[in-house]
Specification:
Low-confidence stretches: none
Shape: elongated
Order of helices and strands: EEHHHHEEEEHEEHEEHH
Largest sheet: 5 strands, antiparallel
Distance between the termini: 109 Å
CATH topology of the largest domain: Alpha-Beta Plaits
Number of strands: 10
Number of helices: 8
Number of domains: 3
Oligomer: single chain
CATH class of the largest domain: Alpha Beta
Structural class: alpha+beta
Length: 296
Amino acid sequence: MFIQLDTVLIQLEESSITFGDALGVSFILLVSYLVTRAALKGLERAQRNRPNFGKSHQFILGRLLIYSFGTIGTLIALSAVGVDFSKLTLIASALSVGIGFGLKNVINNFSSGIILIFERTVRIGDWVVVGQTEGIVDQINLRSSQIQTWDKADVIVPNADMISSQVINWTLEKPSGRIVLSVDVAYGSDTKLVRKLLLEVAKSHPAVMLDGSVKEPIVLFLGYGDSALQLELRCFIQDIMDRIIVKSDLYFAIDDILRKNAIEIPFPQRQIHVKQSDLANIVRLKESSNNSRTNS
């Protein structure tokens, strides 16, 4: 038994939705989906074939295509079933009441997502720090963004937090960045020799930038600590993403070269001075404690 196209499925006050209308709406939505999918495939090919077409560009254009074709397809489908768009003002009024009562945060995150996508202060693949969360931006959606930490944990951050709070973006303008290494040496060490050795270590590492585009490595004498002379090595590296690995390499090299040059790396030490009168009191207390134990 076949269903007639003019069979009424939903009866409204002033109009009705027939089986043919439902088929038409399904066809329109299917075409919108297929067109969107084909456009996204084209963006993927463009990203692979063009080095200048980055992942962030693909993401932004992909989101625009999804929202645009989705909206157009929905409007055409609604028009096909005879929806009167002049009555949408009533729907908008109802939505505004709902927004005022319960959807304020949702709309705030939604508008923040639009700002993030177009402003591009935070992009896919950027290394960011948001509050206590640090990692790589994996996704930027309309309501929230997904950050993958260094432990491969996915953290969902509301877009409003990305807009209203302070965000540190290590890779916004360029991948290079500065690293700082604290080095303490024992009192009496030759500080000029230490500076020479630290600079030698920094300049011998392939990741340290020496092309003149940034400041060359520098060693600073910061002051006198409780048990050590406090120095600091500062240098720029080509990719700040490798910061931890480069710092580890430099620390290994620094430890090795200081040992070879008999420069001591101190550890915290404390000297306790006891007055003679206090020592006598301690002896008397100990003797009285021993006597009480003997008597008991």
